[in-house]
Write a structure and sequence with these properties.
This protein is 70% helix and 0% strand. The chain has 61 residues and is mostly helical.
C-alpha cells in the first residue's frame, strides 16, 4: 500500500509520448502533461514522504 501512495506522487509515464506519436495523437499536449507532472511530482513526492514519515509509516534509519 505504501508503494501505491508513493507511486501516485510520481510523474506520468514518458512512454505515453511515444504512444501518442505512434498513433498520431496530440504529441505536444502529451509532452506538456509529462513536463508539468514531472515538475509537480517534485513537490507531491516530497510532501508524500514528509506526510508518511510524520505519521510513522516510513521510519528513517
Amino acid at each position: 500500500m505504501l508503494a501505491g501512495w508513493l507511486s501516485a506522487a510520481l510523474p506520468s509515464a514518458s512512454n505515453a509520448a511515444l504512444l501518442a506519436e505512434r498513433f498520431d495523437a496530440h504529441g505536444g499536449r502529451v509532452a506538456r502533461v509529462i513536463l508539468v507532472s514531472t515538475v509537480l511530482s517534485f513537490f507531491s513526492f516530497s510532501a508524500a514522504v514528509a506526510l508518511l514519515t510524520g505519521h510513522g509509516v516510513l521510519r528513517g534509519s
